[in-house]
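quick one, 203 residues, struct below
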Amino acid sequence: MKNSGWWRIQKKIIACKKCKNENPEVRTDIKKIPGVAPKNIELLFISEAPPLGNSYFYWENAKDTLRKRIFAILNSIGNNINGLDEFVAAGFYLTPTVKCPSQAEGNVGPSNNTIKFCLEHLQGELNCIKPKKICLLGRTALCGFSQLFPEFKGGKLGEVAGKIREVEIGGRKVRVMITYWPSFRQRKFGEIVKHVWRIARDK
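---
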């Protein structure tokens, strides 16, 4: 994969204003994009959306709860990852389903309309990254992925969590794990660890 192709996609995301008039729930004027390009990715995590505040997965000097949880999960299954360089070098990467932060009050995920508007960007990233395996983190990731791949037949999160399915991306078969949003307060956190362990070691 050429890094130039990846950065072209990120520039397109920065310039995107699709939601400006139709989806006031998101801040299209705030763009958070990775500071490192993916390379030889074994397992791609697909999350929900970047946070609105001063944290972000790819801002290593800022506190970010998602990064802390993902690193804790990966380390608990035998990895030694303490920073983003180690994360990517080990063959991992993360991208959000929705590219703009939400300004909705409370713990409210992106609407289906917002998810739909962002699918063009997610599809471009998938084609560029060419991951060997994917782990969907939570309802938003499942919703977006199911719209990109109708044959995926996502279903409700509680019904499909822990299952591995297969889709075709760029002419290649890719194994996909569905799991819950990784929160330390999530009573199913132990299950999430087991799910990631399964897909990480799946051949």
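Helices lie at 3-15, 19-22, 65-76, 84-89, 112-129, 138-148, 157-160, 189-201.
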